[in-house]
Amino acid sequence: MPLLIIDALNIIRRIHEAVPGEDSEVKVADTITSSLASFKRALKTHRPSHAVAVFDHGGRTWKHELYAPYQANRKPMPSLLREGLQTIKQELQHLGLHWIAIEGIEADDAIATLVEKWCLASPDQVTILSTDKDFLQLLSDQVCIYDHFKGIWRDQAYVIEKFGVKPSQMGDLLALMGDAVDGVPGVSKVGAKTAAELLRINGHLERVISNADKVTGQVGANLRKGVEMARLSRKLVSFKTDVPLGLTWKMLAQNSGVSHGE
């Protein structure tokens, strides 16, 4: 009886970017049609007992309070697409797919909270539908991540091959290397390969920091200078899981009588 969590804007934004042409009502209409088809396909493919689509609420979150430049360079959502989200949300209700958007936190936080609560309540699998690398931190025997566009599971083998670390080290990797898209600073001049090598040697971020004086050259100098930024970045790539979502599992139960366009 698995739970399916859909990172809604991850799906919608990717589809919108793939639709050719400048932003227009026609492009948004195509995005809406394709997005709803994707949501239907996800329900049909994974056949969950419970499902939810999680949206960003928008506006400032606790991460902006922590670090003002957080996501400052992220391109704002086109206004026509933002209006189109209302249509998508209405249609999701007709599909029998519950959606949420919680003020003050990111969709990532709500998704991590759902994962944590599900794993405490049930031994069954939870699948996150997203291409966001931040979720790779959550991978476990019970928590799975599915790339809806490529039709592949992003499992431990994928993480080790692509990033050179285990899923449990992904948060520390992101803290060291930073993330330009989200404005997570990381440590200056420490890229993915260097960060992975440091974690292979030390195991986790705090040990990397405590052994920074043993690292020679520019990397060592940057590490010693970047201790506070590394710790700040670690917080920025973590999840807040103590905010009430206003949900019950019953609200997310999939009614077998509801058509998903099969």
Automatic annotation (TrEMBL):
<dbReference type="InterPro" id="IPR020045">
    <property type="entry name" value="DNA_polI_H3TH"/>
</dbReference>
<feature type="domain" description="5'-3' exonuclease">
    <location>
        <begin position="1"/>
        <end position="255"/>
    </location>
</feature>
<dbReference type="Pfam" id="PF02739">
    <property type="entry name" value="5_3_exonuc_N"/>
</dbReference>
<keyword id="KW-0378">Hydrolase</keyword>
<dbReference type="GO" id="GO:0008409">
    <property type="term" value="F:5'-3' exonuclease activity"/>
</dbReference>
<dbReference type="InterPro" id="IPR029060">
    <property type="entry name" value="PIN-like_dom_sf"/>
</dbReference>
<keyword id="KW-0540">Nuclease</keyword>
<keyword id="KW-0238">DNA-binding</keyword>
<protein>
    <recommendedName>
        <fullName>5'-3' exonuclease domain-containing protein</fullName>
    </recommendedName>
</protein>
<dbReference type="InterPro" id="IPR020046">
    <property type="entry name" value="5-3_exonucl_a-hlix_arch_N"/>
</dbReference>
<dbReference type="GO" id="GO:0017108">
    <property type="term" value="F:5'-flap endonuclease activity"/>
</dbReference>
<dbReference type="InterPro" id="IPR038969">
    <property type="entry name" value="FEN"/>
</dbReference>
<dbReference type="InterPro" id="IPR008918">
    <property type="entry name" value="HhH2"/>
</dbReference>
<dbReference type="Pfam" id="PF01367">
    <property type="entry name" value="5_3_exonuc"/>
</dbReference>
<dbReference type="InterPro" id="IPR002421">
    <property type="entry name" value="5-3_exonuclease"/>
</dbReference>
<dbReference type="GO" id="GO:0003677">
    <property type="term" value="F:DNA binding"/>
</dbReference>
<dbReference type="GO" id="GO:0033567">
    <property type="term" value="P:DNA replication, Okazaki fragment processing"/>
</dbReference>
<dbReference type="InterPro" id="IPR036279">
    <property type="entry name" value="5-3_exonuclease_C_sf"/>
</dbReference>
